[in-house]
Structure prediction request, 333 residues.
Amino acid sequence: MDHTSAMYLGAGLAAIGVGMAAIGVGNVFGSFLEGALRNPSAADGQQGRLFIGFAASELLGLIAFVVAILILFVVK
Amino acid sequence: MAGDINPMEQFEVGHLIDLNLFGYDVSFTNSALFMVVVFVALAGFMAGGLQRKLIPGRWQVAAEGAVSFIDSMVSVNIGQGGKKFAPYIFSLFFFILFANLVGVLPLAIVPGLHTFAVTSHITVTAVLAFFSFGIVLAVGLWKHKLKFFSLFVPHGAPFWLMPVIVPVELVSFMVRPFSLGLRLFVAMTAGHILLEVFGSFAVQGLNAHSGLGFGVWVASMAMIIGVSALELLVCAIQAYVFALLTSLYLHDAVHLH
Prediction:
């Protein structure tokens, strides 16, 4: 396997992490909605925690994206 | 064909006015220009809202709503003694929000103009993150002196676990500025690249002069509309998350857990 195709394969593999983070973000919002529908009056008070969970799981996907971009454009 | 349109071209910083100070290049760039645009927009928005009428007009309600939004976020997340950080959180949130929104303005429909997303550069977001981290460190060390380092020792953790927990807490504390700056930078960059990629699909599909090309153009335009809407949401969420995390870190510095 030559260098360029290995590079593209690596970037593609790194992009798996973005999809995994999407599962995580969906899980955060889905669980929030599940709880919020059970007790709507308490939902507004938990919005800060919702966004902290969202930010934490989203960050990992963004890092995977950065790795993919680094492999594609920076690593020679 | 794909090499015609470079999705990274939109992030290029170009000199508008060349300036040289003591051997350093301090030229007025398009990045600086758009920071000035953001500042003028924000200052204009707030100045227009400071009418102090008993029965507020629309503009005053908008400005007061912005202030009370930050005020409630600060009082919920920092709690006692958080009021004095409200101006910083306010500036942070609205600078990032306005910069994000200016960055997605469709200015490029006027030939020769191109908007520039200030927050899609890690130099800008990292400086904002280092400001937040520096304030957390300064406040924590000034308020609690050396007791500030008890931040790394969680309450109720068993004693024999300390050699593991303290390094982990230390690392998680030290990566805060990087995660803060990186999150905003990457979220904005990724959105702009996505828009540019679908834009290039639309242009190339229309240039193909075929039925399939027209189909590609329709699908790409539909995606651009969807991604633009998502991008507006991400602009607001990222600004909110940045301000929220900063106020949470300030809570740690003020109250030590």
The radius of gyration of chain A is 17 Å. The CA atoms of residues 18 and 49 of chain A lie 22 Å apart. The first helix of chain A runs from residue 3 to 38. The domain at 3-74 of chain A is CATH 1.20.20.10 (F1FO ATP Synthase).
